[in-house]
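Homework-ish question, so no full write-ups if that breaks the rules, but can someone show me the predicted structure for this set?
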Amino acid sequence: MPTPTADVAHLMRRAGFGATTAQVASLAAQDWEDLVEGLITAGPTPPDPLPAQGTSWTTFVAMIQTWLDRMATGPTPLREKMALVWHGHLTTSFSKTYDAEWLWQQNQVLRAHALGNFRTLLHQVALGPAMLDYLDNRHNRVGAPNENWARELMELFVLGAGSGYTQDDVAAMARAWTGHGINGRVYQFRSDRHDNGQKTILGVTANWDGPATIDHLLDGPLRMTAARFVARKVFAHLAHPSPPPATLDELATTFADSDWDISALVRAILLHPDFRSAAARDGLVRMPVEFAAAAMRCSGLPASVAHPEWWLDAMGQLVFNPPNVSGWRQNAYWLTTSAMGTRFNMARNISWRLNDTPTFLPELGSASPADAVALVCDQFEIAPSAATRSRLEGHVAELRAARHGWAVRPNLFTLVMLTPEFNLA
Amino acid sequence: MLPADIDSAPALAHLTLDDSSSGLSRRAFLQGALAAGALGVAMPSWATEAFGATPLGPNDGILVVVLMGGGNDGLNMVVPYQDGAYYSRRGGLAVPQASVLPLAGAAVGLHPALTGVAQRYAAGQVAVVQGVGYPNPDLSHFTSMATWMSGLPGQIPTSGWLGRYFDAAAPNTLRGVAIGSGVPLHMNGASHRSVSLPVGAPPPGLSSEDWNRRMFSSIEATSSASTGRGALADAIARTCTDMMVVARDVAPAYVPEPPDSKLVGDLTLAAQLINADVGARVISVGYGDFDSHANQPFMHDSRMQELDAALTAFWSTLAFAQSHRVTVVTFSEFGRRVQVNGSNGTDHGTAAPMLVMGSRVRGGVHGGAPSLTSLDRSGNLVATSDFRQVYAEVIDRWLGGSSSAVLGGNFAHHGVFASVPGDPLPGGGFSDVPAGAFYATPVAWLAAQGITTGVGGSSRFEPNAPVTRGEMVTFLWRFAGQPAVSGPMPFSDVPTGAFYSVPVMWAAAEGITTGVSGTNRFDPGARVTRGEMATFLWRYARQPVPTQPSSFSDVSRTAFYAVPVDFLAQHAITTGVAGTNRFAPGNQVTRGEMATFLWRFDQAGFRAR
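A: Not a homework solution, just the prediction itself:
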């Protein structure tokens, strides 16, 4: 059974970063389950070597550009979307590590396991140099524990604050992770730095060693707490931030029963009726990264020309550099006057580029206001509301009446990227 | 304890902990954009275009909040250097006794990088509130920060403490301003949303080109009709509209361009916003990272240097005339553990000091010092003050709001404010007006009335300097309430645009001056004598006829100032030169004397005209 184009567009925005109007029209021939399955199994995943050699800074910039290009036009949009979700969840930042290569190694792990197994993902992230450095576990030694990683593993990554563990669990968890550090540039376990004493974590006393505690968090007494916590996070990014409790229970059970198969969780979310509810369709603001990726695809400009790295920081979301260990928030968090000003600046910069590209919507200059607005809205992948359409058409007519007809192109490109419709996810 | 799933509660969506990352210069990326001309902004044209900002009332206090994200080590900022337990527990992390900047009369001193703060402390302009925390601390960055920002411990944080103050205050788009890309929770209320401002280039929204202006108008109109796509779409539209309104109002504050570095740039912009009087009651800035689990010394030292440099930049940028309505308050979500950890760092802690700064604070150390030996079971300090005590005082005293409404309870003030905006400051707050001087009270009154703003907007009054005729009429014009005046300028030597041009026109129109006898000149740079001063005041009072002559031996009955001096003597506005029966009419009047004459003149009831 074909799928309504509005549903396809919604799916492509959430399980990716959007799709062209032509792509949406062609995908609409498919049945909803097939569309979802196609996104989950899309491939092959492009190779992901370190984007550039050079200074840590130039590498960092190249990493941002490479990932944004992949989000905008790559063949595996859902994988990139989930890698971004995990990046905001299992955070590490360039500001602390100053090591672009470590962050890229972690990004490879996030991408490889974006739709894989959450248990494996946690194990690999935990022992990657980026995380060992970012949350200081490299300094965690017997007799001199460092609680940073231990606390955030439970509070931010697996269970949630106030979910049933205590400060004593944090202290014991820190002891369990002693000795897991970095030697040179790679992970190393040093048994002489490991605390081999008994530790009680979530009520179980043993000679706990770091990696085994991850399984204890996922399989132990707080298994369903973890499943709910992670399912809520993923639902919040694919659908909307306030899942109905019954939906969340359902998703958490699916996730735990699959033994932490992320693709099972994602499939359950995308196939859930709540995913196509009004609350979901109007329930997310495009994050800056999504805004930038969409602006790049709609304008046909690669990152090397659109320079998303110029704007992402001031929009509030620089990839590889989340503001703190809890990552980014959602929705109203992005809606500040200064961040919107930066969305404008990026849109304006792209608009001037497009204005100098005669092959980009060449028919715009002679089109009627209604046709001009329709062309631009199609190009920028939005279905404008009546209010937006009439405002934009009014602007076209007004410019022409004031003999500024030449400005229709750049102004309309900018205005469409500032519409509520373009800025909803 | 917060609910289990607090991390994803919709409420926490607002808990912006923006810009707390360290190291990366936000401008590093922007440089590329600037080099490519991608911002396309010509600063000077913006600067002249601002309009629409609503200035503050004369007695409205301004609060600047400095958020130190990640958990600032309070024990190494305000150091208990006389307590042996500090050195035994802190080991190599302890600030050596010899490096601590001692605070007179206190058992604590400041981190060695805080030299500017120490100088202000010595001047009585820094209040340190010791041991501030919240009940039942849970050591989590996020529940702690949510608690500090919301001001409601143990509740789901859906609004911030300052935001709820704004909910009840007079509306104005710019009353709450966050600097940076985000707006932190403490600035948003149940209904009020604060705006945010970028650092570096001003926000987009102004242009001299018609085709650009029309585009900006279209963006501003985004919220005039709903898309029907729900509350978030409407919020996007409102943000677009607000962005355009804000851009028009704040442009002057971006000249000169604030410096590049994080907190220094933010606080410089904050000072320039206050100087431009755009209507902001609260400005929030933040920086970090303070989460020093490992290798703390370099990290914390550099944060302290940044704080001191930024506060110094702030106070030096702030116009003296605005400075007495401004207070700066610092906070962090928690302090750090007393015992050093194994990584030459410190883990999450509890209570920490807050700094409250400004010319009206009651300088010194407030609140009890937390014990370094009687700790809680995680080895952390037991708070001696509730953070809401400081909030309550800020809301009630500085912002003129109701803390019980905002905080849902009453919290005892520490008394950190010696006075509030509108109260006279000793000596007008000027650095060169000693408390015992005969003109100290008059100058304080003059400053509180806005009749003087110091020499060239500085912190000096220069009480012994002479008064020029241009200055004299300016003082009188301000004394009269700065009345509007129009018409031609009667004098050939008074240029339009001089600070005294309008006052001179007013004084001429009111018959207070007729210029230099027999000429069409005013001679604005000439110095005023005591005899002339008497004449100016007498004419201001509409030339009343005194009941008896004065008894000064050096006032000739034929002098032009004889009757004016009689008038001053009759109303005790002058008592002559101390210890003599002379008036010294030919002596130049000093600014200190002028202040005294004007103050007595006011007290005698001659201000209203």
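Now go work out the reasoning yourself. Hint: Chain A touches chain B through 98 residues (CB under 8 Å).
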